[in-house]
């Protein structure tokens, strides 16, 4: 009997969603970073602005950084008008994105509960609900019994260390399958002519007479009319090569999944006070995020005691998780800004554009920031929705303090 | 988890420590004389290198004293620890 070729009985490899490109010597726009934000920016540059001579440069593989590591929570229940503007714009785009990209994103609007555990939490939360309603963002205040109705496995017993005194609820919030989001955006952008160059790390920005002219990479020098930074935790390193200092700090952020379980958790639950956020993926894993590690680091792994505390918090809130096993933990490097809001806009260098500082919460904004950042790059002027998130707000003092609504970790 | 050599107590696990960010950032001599740009720099801008970084730690669950460390943020290796008031040691 002749030996069988390994894999011979497997189905044919499906068509590739995009093809890997060799770097050309020059592009109209080079996007640094092939994560969700870079892909969304490329897509909207091509679709909304007709700019298709675009390369997305990625030092690893496409969407293999924080896009592959986040906990996929999507919501827009932030406090301030500026945040409501950009996050709600993103949520509205999410609501039509599967249809637009003609690709399944497993976008599931199962709602998010943000728990309150103290009287101050309650006041802040109710205030945020009112602010959300004034901004056209769906939000309601739930008492503990109503929390239990939305998510029956939450422990609302009053005799725990951090009792649940209520929660804000945003019904339109939810989750999506992060990989599918990246693939859908990449496929759509590739169809419009955008090129993706993987394993191509940008090692320096070329600046002449105050104007960016190209990038130096591990695969050679590439000239660029405009350069858009979407490098998340590595933005400081890249920007420094153009002499730009940024008010961000890079920290590891950890998350984990359990083994696959039957559906037990119908929504998303986040808790500031006890530092955990939990949802259940379509496949069945419980997906839990932790807070950042305190010390700056570019290592994509965090300390065990952070995970330990996160699990302790999760078990108090969800006693039913006690028998679940942790399947996998991992970390990503996030760029934390002083006011827990992103920095999106122009830089002191001409034709160089900045999108960073999303810290622990960039995934939810993916289509919204792509839309606005593409506008910024195409017009050399911020979109009205990202204009408040300029770099110079740290000098003018017009901060957008979202430490409360950013939930865990900042 | 990091194993951090406190200059007074010796190596202890990271959970005993509190992080203090970049070291050697002095409070301005005359804050009211600063321009908005200078004040923003003092308040919000800190180095964020991928590499060796001089940073502050407090041994909050031990001797409760502050000290400085030079740690590589790309590897987490701690190259030196030194007491407050001492100059940053040359580590490479």
Output the keywords.
heterodimer; A: 410 residues; alpha/beta; FAD/NAD(P)-binding domain; D-Amino Acid Oxidase, Chain A, domain 2; 2 domains; 8-stranded mixed beta sheet; 9 helices; globular; B: 92 residues; mainly beta; Folate-binding fold; 4-stranded antiparallel beta sheet; two-stranded antiparallel ribbon; 1 helix
Could you describe the 3D structure shown?
Chain B: GO terms for molecular function: sarcosine oxidase activity. Chain B: InterPro entries: SoxD (IPR006279), SoxD_sf (IPR038561). Chain B: This is Heterotetrameric sarcosine oxidase delta subunit. Chain B: It holds the Pfam family SoxD. Chain A: GO terms for molecular function: nucleotide binding; sarcosine oxidase activity. The complex is a heterodimer of chains A (410) and B (92). Chain A has 9 helices and 18 strands. Helix content of chain A is 27%, strand content 25%. Chain A has 410 residues and is α/β, with parallel strands linked by helices. In chain A, the strands form 3 sheets. In chain A, strands 1, 2, 8, 9, 10, 11, 17 and 18 form an 8-stranded mixed sheet that branches. Chain A has an 8-stranded mixed sheet with strand order 5-6-4-13-14-15-12-16. In chain A, strands 3-7 form a two-stranded antiparallel sheet. Chain A folds into 2 domains: 26-70 and 179-248 and 338-406, FAD/NAD(P)-binding domain (3-Layer(bba) Sandwich), CATH 3.50.50.60; 108-172 and 249-332, D-Amino Acid Oxidase, subunit A, domain 2 (D-Amino Acid Oxidase, Chain A, domain 2), CATH 3.30.9.10. The longest helix of chain A is centred in the N-terminal third of the chain and has 21 residues, at 81-101. Chain B has 92 residues and is mostly beta strands. Chain B has a single domain (1-23, 41-92), classed as 2-Layer Sandwich (Folate-binding fold), CATH 3.30.2270. Helix content of chain B is 10%, strand content 36%. Chain B is built from 1 helix and 6 strands; from the N terminus they run E-E-E-H-E-E-E. Chain B has one helix at residues 36-44, and strands spanning 3-6, 10-13, 18-22, 52-58, 66-72, 78-83. Chain B has a 4-stranded antiparallel sheet with strand order 3-4-5-6, with no helix packed on it. A two-stranded antiparallel sheet of chain B has the order 1-2. Chain B starts with a strand and ends in a 9-residue tail after the last strand. In chain B, 17% of the residues are buried. The mean pLDDT of chain B is 96. The chains are: A alpha/beta (410), B mainly beta (92). Chains A and B meet through helix 9 of A and strand 3 and helix 1 of B.
